[in-house]
Amino acid sequence: MGAEGFYTGGFRDWHVHLELMRPEPSPVTRVLDLGSNVERLRGIADGLRGVTVSYAGAFITAPGGYPSDRSWAGAGSVIEVDGAAAAREAALSMREEGASVLKVAMNSIAGPAASSEVVRAVVAAAAGLPVVAHAEGPGEAQRARECGATMLAHTPFTERLDDAEIAAQAERVVWISTLDIHGWGTPDNEFGIAVDNLRRFHRAGGVVRYGTDMGNGPTVAGFNTREIAALAECGLSRAEILATLTPAAPAQGGPVVFVPGTPEWPYVAGAVLVDTAAH
Ligand SMILES: [Zn+2]
Questions:
Q1: Which of 54, 71, 144, 208 meets the CB 3.0–4.6 Å disulfide criterion with 149?
Q2: pLDDT exceeds 60 at position 34
Q3: What dihedral angle (degrees, nearest 10) is formed by the CA atoms of 144, 150, 151, 157?
């Protein structure tokens, strides 16, 4: 390494589905699985070398709600709950299974969404774990925030959120980007809506995490540079993009910079050189 750059790596993808796709070796060495059968996921994680896996476990959803009807949602990857008591039980069971976040499905386009009562019960039972909402459909991102969800699995893409809602989201909700899912390189209408929302969310001080929804559609099995380009399109600086790739929880600080010759260096197989000479 010359004086012109630094190596970094150990990135985290905050939205993957390992039951659907295994990551290839890349600077992404930490992943958050947002919806899987825990037992199968553990088996998959054991077989992955050099990748640290954390997970939500099963989707918590309404009876018949998304994604219970999807072919890719295997047995045990969805818990359908009909009220607060069942929601609490589902949340507690995922906590016992070692979940580091909880996932609720609020997709009113694909069927019944988790009710506000259910989401509030999951939040109450989360005991400080982040509650990640898949919010899709008119008003669902707003409802997720009002019910106390602390992360959105996707940048809202159904509709343009008004500035007051953007400000309220920026204050308390972390957004996982997943911009590239809207066209996978051929940006569609929803890509434009999401970019517009994320640009204003970022400008309002909102916290963004890199996430790709790896496995759901023709996604990239590793580091998705199109996602990075989309974040740049939203106005994030290089340093801010690096921060979205942080391996740590939002409260635990920034990205990792590795220097050759230091004790951790030999372990950074997937490190990438950030060239600072070009700009
Ligand atoms: Zn997903």
A1: 144
A2: yes
A3: 30
The CA 23 to ligand 1 mean position distance, Å, reads 15
The conformation of residue 253, written as its DSSP 8-state character, comes to -
Give the mean model confidence (pLDDT) for residues 154-178. 98
CA distance 257 to 131: 29
Q: Kindly state the tokens that stand for 33.
A: 């699985």
Strands 11-16 and 5-9: unpaired
Query: In the prediction, which pLDDT does 273 show?
Result: 57
CB neighbour list of residue 235: distance below 8 Å, 6 or more residues apart: 199, 202, 203
- Determine the topology of domain 13-249 in CATH: TIM Barrel (3.20.20)
Give the whole-number percent of the chain exceeding pLDDT 90: 72
CA 189 to centroid of ligand 1, rounded, Å: 19
Query: Mean pLDDT, the chain, as a whole number?
Result: 88
CA 212 to centroid of ligand 1, rounded, Å: 8
CA distances from 104 to 47, 115, 152 (A): 27, 10, 10
**What's the pLDDT score for residue 73?**
87
Residue 259 has pLDDT above 60, yes or no: no
Distance 53 CA to ligand 1 centre (A): 15
Q: Do residues 183 and 219 lie in contact, with contact meaning Cβ atoms separated by under 8 Å?
A: no
- Between the CA of 271 and the centroid of ligand 1 the distance, in Å, is 26
Q: Which helix (H) or strand (E) holds 257?
A: strand 256-258
- Report the separation in Å between the CA atom of 73 and the middle of ligand 1, taken as the mean of its atom positions: 11
